[in-house]
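thought: user wants a sequence for this fold. calling inverse folding tool.
action: design(structure=
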């Protein structure tokens, strides 16, 4: 668990490197955009995975409040 927290903290610390203005993003002259595709893939994965897990949890437990009584 500490390993995941440390990775998450590192992603938050280096999140400023991913941000760019719309006109500058993807320009070939800017050396900071050398790894733009990888940064975007990591960003999309970090957004997609938690929402997928949340959706899966909600979908799995959608009938949690319905109490079924066993038949005697």
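)
observation: tool returned 72 residues.
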């Amino acid at each position: 668990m500490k390993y995941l927290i440390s990775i998450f903290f590192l992603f938050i610390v280096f999140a400023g490197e991913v941000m760019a203005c719309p006109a500058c993003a993807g320009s070939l002259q800017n050396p900071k955009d050398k790894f733009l595709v990888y940064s975007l893939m990591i960003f999309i994965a970090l957004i997609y995975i938690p929402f997928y897990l949340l959706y899966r949890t909600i979908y799995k437990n959608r009938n949690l409040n319905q109490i079924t009584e066993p038949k005697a």
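thought: summarizing for user.
answer: Here is the designed sequence. The chain has a mean pLDDT of 75.
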